[in-house]
Amino acid sequence: MEICGIVTGVPLISVFIFTGILINLIQVACYLTIRPLSKSRFRRINGAITELLWLEVVWMMEWWSGFEVKLHTDFKTHQLMGKEHAILMPNHVSDTDTILTWILAERMGCLRSALTIVKKSVQYLPFFGWTTWFYEFIFVDRNWAKDESKLKSSFEALKDFPFPFWMTIFVEGTRLTHDKLLEAQTFASSKGLPIPKNVLIPKTKGFVTAVQSLRSFVPAIYDVTFAIPKDHPFPTLLRIFKMQPCKIKVHIKRYSTKDLPESDEGIAQWCRNRFIAKDALLENFAATGTFDDEEITTFRRSIKSSIVFFIATSLLSLGAWISCQKFSLLSTRWGCTILATTIGSVAIIVHIFLEFTKLPPQKSKAAL
């Protein structure tokens, strides 16, 4: 039930809000004072403080909920991850996919520069969305007439980014659902294309623009495949709040941007071919429960995220205790009203996040 998720989510979001308020205030101050003088210094400071907030989200997934993430890739790719600019091209299976890329980025030491292209409405989410706006996420309308120039200018602005970044692009454009998969299969059948079973047909315009705009200074594309083992639930924000673990396996194959075709149509076809291969990879995973590439056994849960969350929780608890003592919040009607209003406001924010990430009603009741 969602009410259970709201109740268990209140203490987690309380810490997130506390940290978010501090970080947003610092971001505003630095944006107004430091950025006009030095964009590079602003990015460094902004990345360092934003990383603290993202580490709390990573902690929620891994330590609170018990998400288990296993990485499969080759040795060369693993050695380069986090040390070079890269475009990430994952399949889109759940509302936690962006956070899954953060877990990968945290392990590789580039969480403070893990960027994503997301829908425009994300920037209005309390604290989370505001932080991503300063953090240089790219927000799109899902209307190419509006998005083309915004994408090109945003990619151009990354030329002088001060440390290795990851730019994640969900080229399917939306999360995989049974209804969306049926639509993709119908479209593929009408066009004589291979029928997908585990992915949607990619929308290639944004990806082509990314490659053409970034290939001069971004050396790699990481073809990322998220796979959910058979009989395991899909990860959701609600499951995180309710401490319900999920198991995710991640396969990454690296491609050099220099090896991609030069023409727009060539790049678009390359992207479509990769999703055909990704579909086959997921089909094989469904049959065998594993990927061919060796598992990276050193890929363990983050200790840094635990330290950050413990410090934030301690500061919030100390501040709450001092406030209760100083303003008699527990012994007066006015104080109890303030406390109840605060808790209620946090519960509303939890509800907003749950509603924002909830899948729309499906026409078909069949499961993926």
Question: Quick one: how many beta strands?
Answer: 7
Low-confidence stretches: none
Rg over alpha carbons = 21 Å
Q: Strand count, sense and closure of the main sheet?
A: 7 strands, mixed
CATH topology term: Glycerol-3-phosphate (1)-acyltransferase
Mean pLDDT: 92
- How many distinct folded domains? 1
In short:
This protein is of the alpha/beta class. Helices cover 55% and strands 11% of the residues. The protein has one domain: Glycerol-3-phosphate (1)-acyltransferase (3-Layer(aba) Sandwich).
Describe this structure in words.
This protein has 368 residues and is an alpha/beta fold. It has one domain (2-305): Glycerol-3-phosphate (1)-acyltransferase (3-Layer(aba) Sandwich), CATH 3.40.1130. The chain has twelve helices and seven strands. Strands 1-7-6-2-5-3-4 form a seven-stranded mixed sheet, sandwiched between helices. Strand 3, helix 5 and strand 4 form a beta-alpha-beta unit. Helix 1 packs parallel to helix 5, helix 1 crosses helix 11 and helix 6 (144-156) runs parallel beside helix 8. The longest helix is centred in the N-terminal third of the chain and has 32 residues, at 2-33. The model has no long low-confidence stretch (mean pLDDT 92).
